[in-house]
Design brief:
The protein is α/β, with parallel strands linked by helices. It has one domain (3-192): Phosphoglycerate mutase-like (Rossmann fold), CATH 3.40.50. It contains seven helices and five strands; from the N terminus they run E-H-H-E-H-E-H-H-E-H-E-H. The protein has helices at residues 13-16, 31-43, 58-68, 94-102, 117-132, 145-155, 177-192, and strands at residues 3-8, 51-54, 75-77, 138-143, 172-176. It has a five-stranded mixed sheet with strand order 3-2-4-1-5. Helix 3 (58-68) links the parallel strand 2 (51-54) and strand 3 (75-77). The longest helix is centred in the middle third of the chain and has 16 residues, at 117-132.
Length: 202
């Protein structure tokens, strides 16, 4: 891989309803989400995409298919890039999970056999390394907000925060292979000794 195009899936039913959704396959795209992805497809039309990667969740696979359309491009799924396991908060209002997560250690797992932020950072790093191993030069990954925020921030030298900054639906980021390598290494190291970064006050 030489270049990674990263984008969050289009708006899904669970996003519209503000529900924490991590169970496979999960809800698909809304009509608004489909329109978002059509705009994304037009934006990426000139990109020489070599391979498309989704997660195990339907919202990413539907987005990938709409973006690639009739292109003769292989499509794969990488489960290590799935949404975080929300544990007992799955299928409940997302704000309930965010309220819990805001005040908890990154090493603490979500109740109900969920993942910790440290666990998921290590898993995301494995997924990033699988992307790096791809022989194709330009990789398109359709993913989830947490993974995109962790990867993009880590590529710029930032460890995770207690709550992530919003990630827009169907809006692409570009990372070089060296940036992806740096992001994977940072997340691996942080997962072994996790401490959230301080957020600006005010």
């Amino acid at each position: 891989m030489e270049l990674l195009l990263l984008t969050r899936h289009g708006l899904a039913g669970s996003n519209r309803d503000r529900i924490a959704s991590c169970e496979v396959p999960g809800e698909g795209l809304t009509q608004e989400g489909i329109e978002q992805v059509r705009t994304l497809a037009a934006l990426l039309e000139a990109e020489e995409i070599s391979v498309g990667i989704a997660t195990e969740l339907a919202r990413t696979q539907e987005t990938l298919e709409l973006v690639l359309g009739a292109r003769d491009v292989p499509r794969f799924v990488i489960g290590d890039l799935n949404e975080i396991n929300f544990g007992a908060y799955a299928d409940r209002p997302l704000d309930e999970y965010r309220a819990w997560a805001a005040s908890r250690s990154p090493a603490e797992r979500a109740p109900g056999d969920g993942e910790s932020r440290a666990d998921v950072a290590a898993r995301f790093a494995r997924g990033l390394r699988r992307l790096l191993e791809r022989p194709e030069p330009v990789v398109l990954h359709i993913g989830h907000a947490l993974m995109l925020r962790y990867a993009v921030d880590a590529a710029h030298g930032l460890v995770p925060a207690p709550l992530i900054a919003p990630v827009e639906h169907a809006a692409p980021f570009k990372l070089s292979a060296s940036q992806v390598e740096s992001a994977a290494a940072l997340l691996e190291g942080w997962s072994r000794s996790p401490r959230f970064r301080d957020l600006p006050s005010g």
